[in-house]
Amino acid sequence: MTSEKAATPSERIRPRVSASARTAHDGQTDGRDLQVLARATSVLNMFSTDRPRIDLAGATSELGLNRSTVYRYLSAMVKHGLLVHTQGQGYSLGPLASRVGLLALDRAPLISRADPVMQILSEQVHETSTLSVWGGSGPLVARVHDEQSRFIRISIAVGSTLPINTAQGQIFLAHLTNERSVARATLGLSELERARLLDRREDVRRTRIAFSDASADGLRCVAAPIYGPDGSLAATLALIGTLSRIPDHSGDVRVEALVKAARSLSTG
């Protein structure tokens, strides 16, 4: 004779979940996940070259949700690195979003074409070359080729956003046509520095070259524009080195080599 084990109280009251009920629950979970993804994507789509920052009020209005819900979404995106929150300035793209963007940029035709050109340029003039794209508030470094033959090498981290008063920044500033973008790019500069940079814009557009120096660090940079198929500015190509090696005028073989390389990458 076999004996049957009596069910425990918890087993007697445990509800049985049918396969159809489990499927329905899983479907609801999937639906909520897709909704979260869709709303996070909508937040990311609010950013553009002319709009590098958003605020809670604007996001609330555009998403059509209540303020507390949008705040939870933005806070979660900050927690996971998609956004960065700066008190009094709102939200900007975070390190994860920047890293993913650079990975996508890695596959862009310009980047793949630029690699061998930058390598040849650096070997020819024995200086570090950099390729930058516009990051919304300043040049974003997308590629760097260090000069390998020197004992001391100068480099810039890929993913860095450069100040607008750098040579690369001056090239981008000269080609900004939206006054709001100009105001945003020069935010934080003194009135004297802002006026000085704006006065240079026409000359930079005409000569297609810009110089800057960080005399406190003993460095200087020279940059040239790279144009896209429609004639708009696509990126900048630059050389960075010491004050004693990088000239501050256009009649130098290094500058001529830089300009030639930038023209070879332009398609417009």
Order of helices and strands: HHEHHEEHHEEHHHEEEH
Q: Which band does the percent of strand residues land in?
A: 15-25%
Determine the fraction of residues in helical runs and give it as a percent range. Answer: 40-55%
Distance between the termini: 91 Å
Describe the global form. Answer: globular
- CATH class of the largest domain, please? Alpha Beta
Over the alpha carbons, how many angstroms does the gyration radius reach?
Answer: 26 Å
Number of helices: 10
User: Regions with pLDDT < 50 over 5+ consecutive residues?
Assistant: none
Record field, number of beta strands: 8
Order of adjacent strands in the largest pleated sheet: 5-4-8-7-6
Under the CATH scheme, which architecture of the largest domain would be assigned? 2-Layer Sandwich
Number of domains: 2
Attribute tags:
alpha+beta, five-stranded antiparallel sheet, 268 residues, 8 strands, Arc Repressor Mutant, subunit A, 18% strand
Description of the molecule:
The chain is an alpha+beta fold and 268 residues long. It folds into two domains: 17-93, Winged helix-like DNA-binding domain superfamily/Winged helix DNA-binding domain (Arc Repressor Mutant, subunit A, Orthogonal Bundle), CATH 1.10.10.10; 108-265, GAF domain (Beta-Lactamase, 2-Layer Sandwich), CATH 3.30.450.40. The protein has ten helices and eight strands. The protein has a five-stranded antiparallel sheet with strand order 5-4-8-7-6, with helices on both faces. Strand 4 (128-134) and strand 5 form a beta hairpin. Helix 6 (109-125) packs antiparallel against helix 10 (253-265). The longest helix has 26 residues, at 19-44. The N and C termini lie far apart (91 Å). The model has no long low-confidence stretch (mean pLDDT 85).
